[in-house]
C-alpha cells in the first residue's frame, strides 16, 4: 500500500466538513482508526470506534442543520489544521461557534481529532447573546 499524501488527507478533512451534517454516525466513525480518538477541549477524549460512534450518534440525534464549511485548511506530513464556523440548531436555539482543530492521520484514517472552540461564544449564545461576527 502506498503512503497517503498530505494533499489526500487534506481532501479527506475537507470532505468530512462539507458533509458533516449529512454523514451517518457509521460513515463518520469509519473515517477513524480502531484506536483513534476525539479530544474536545476541557473534556475527556472519546477513545476507540465504539465511543466515537456514540459521540456521533449523540450529535446526529441532538443537533440539526449542521454546517461546518472550512474557512482555512493547511497540512503538513500527516497533520491537517482546519478552521470553521460551526453552525447548528440545538434545543430550539441556533448556534454559531468559531472552531479550529488538528487532525492527525495514520495512512488515510484519522488517528486523532483535537477540537478547540470559542467557549465564551457558546455560553453567550446559551444566555441569549448575539452570535460572533463573521
From TrEMBL:
Pfam families: SnoaL_2. Residues 13-113 form the SnoaL-like domain. Transmembrane segments: none annotated. InterPro entries: NTF2-like_dom_sf (IPR032710), SnoaL-like (IPR037401). This is SnoaL-like domain-containing protein.
Amino acid at each position: 500500500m502506498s503512503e497517503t499524501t498530505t494533499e489526500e488527507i487534506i481532501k479527506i478533512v475537507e470532505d468530512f466538513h462539507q458533509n458533516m451534517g449529512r454523514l451517518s454516525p457509521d460513515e463518520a466513525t469509519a473515517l477513524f482508526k480502531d484506536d483513534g480518538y476525539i479530544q474536545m477541549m476541557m473534556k475527556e477524549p472519546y477513545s476507540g470506534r465504539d465511543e466515537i460512534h456514540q459521540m456521533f450518534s449523540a450529535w446526529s440525534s441532538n443537533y440539526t442543520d449542521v454546517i461546518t464549511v472550512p474557512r482555512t485548511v493547511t497540512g503538513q506530513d500527516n497533520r491537517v489544521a482546519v478552521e470553521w464556523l460551526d453552525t447548528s440548531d440545538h434545543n430550539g436555539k441556533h448556534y454559531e461557534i468559531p472552531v479550529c482543530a488538528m487532525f492527525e492521520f495514520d495512512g488515510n484514517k484519522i488517528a486523532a481529532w483535537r477540537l478547540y472552540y470559542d467557549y465564551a461564544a457558546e455560553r453567550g449564545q446559551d444566555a441569549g447573546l448575539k452570535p460572533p461576527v463573521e
